[in-house]
Amino acid sequence: xxxxxxxxxxxxxxxxxxxxxxxxxxxxxxxxxxxxxxxxxxxxxxxxxxxxxxxxxxxxxxxxxxxxxxxxxxxxxxxxxxxxxxxxxxxxxxxxxxxxxxxxxxxxxxxxxxxxxxxxxxxxxxxxxxxxxxxxxxxxxxxxxxxxxxxxxxxxxxxxxxxxxxxxxxxxxxxxxxxxxxxxxxxxxxxxxxxxxxxxxxxxxxxxxxxxxxxxxxxxxxxxxxxxxxxxxxxxxxxxxxxxxxxxxxxxxxxxxxxxxxxxxxxxxxxxxxxxxxxxxxxxxxxxxxxxxxxxxxxxxxxxxxxxxxxxxxxxxxxxxxxxxxxxxxxxxxxxxxxxxxxxxxxxxxxxxxxxxxxxxxxxxxxxxxxxxxxxxxxxxxxxxxxxxxxxxxxxxxxxxxxxxxxxxxxxxxxxxxxxxxxxxxxxxxxxxxxxxxxxxxxxxxxxxxxxxxxxxxxxxxxxxxxxxxxxxxxxxxxxxxxxxxxxxxxxxxxxxxxxxxxx
Length: 504
What we know:
Blueprint: H1 8-17, H2 24-46, E1 74-81, E2 92-96, H3 123-130, E3 134-139, H4 173-180, E4 186-190, H5 197-203, E5 206-209, E6 230-234, H6 237-247, E7 277-281, H7 292-307, E8 311-315, H8 323-340, H9 355-361, H10 373-389, H11 392-411, E9 417-421, H12 437-445, H13 452-457, E10 461-469, E11 472-480, H14 485-496
Parallel strand pairs: 2-3, 2-4, 7-8, 7-9
Antiparallel strand pairs: 1-3, 4-6, 5-6, 5-10, 9-11, 10-11
């Protein structure tokens, strides 16, 4: 593409947008001064981009039929075989559809991206293939990942693996379903407000949101850099730990990564919890939408850790109940400026930018009425706040988030882990197509109260299934110190070994 000098009319329009008043002489002067910079832009335009090599052959795959895909979990089936050997040899993986798989279409749950094909692989994709994994394709996620329910994607709702007509959780909805059904061994999810852990809770699988900056987000469509996380969703703790071993570590691109502490997480398996101190987070059971049966199931599970030899005590962190409010300006204004008006990336970070995605994503402006109701809501709110107050609330919320981080860290001075319900409720019914906007939004956001705080404090947190209520799974969340995923795996594995969670 070529950049041309703005016409006098275009320059006057831009000046007005910037709050400037220009005379005819000003217009002529500024156009002359811009000429050298325009030439520089065109020099950049003519240079080849710098993107990673695609190492493993693949085809675009296909959209599975309704008969092949009854819960609408899959977006695209496309097999990519990795190296002949490695830690993940024999393992099959599904990718959330905000993760770039070169040559295979990607939508991030939105019809506005239909037709986009990435031109390079996400770092984690290359790492899994190098480790011998076989990628089976892309699975549906929620519209631009802005929902904790599974009903907002442009291509229809995703159904719970245990009960048709019920939510699979979001935004990594398809990831949770295909793992729970055994269609793949592993899946990758993303988590900005709980989007790995919420579908793991609703579907009855193990989902780890790692410490922020442990796993590269490179080649994954961002929402907001401060809360972007990606991580493993699996049917077993052992597979979860194994996959994180492959995913973790600096890739030289992601500015989120600052000297992460990387471990062999599988070494935590089988170590038990004897001598461990676990704090039951009182406020985690006090969400306004909490279901008594879910709380009771999690409390009963907590007793099992005590039976296994851990010290289990109640701890109070009142600020936890403010975590969702603190998250709101960061998530809302971040996604508005970065994901939407910033064409998926925004500015001011040393990232690996996908210019092909940025170019294609700009098209949402011509199709804005087709965006999900949650996307419209957040974008309008974020724009209103920015127009009237600027970014001060984003900045203040981020500042306050450090106080929330300190509150959890103080508790970690006494406890190895915090324990609470992942979601305050089990899976809810999917909204009817005729549901009101109010119901649509409520089913998308009502479950994030316990998960969102740890996206802004960056602590690792894992959901594990701990029981069933009315035929639907209940998720228990373990939260650990920064970069101490091994401690979480140690406890989760010990719990997994005591028996079938469906019968607890």
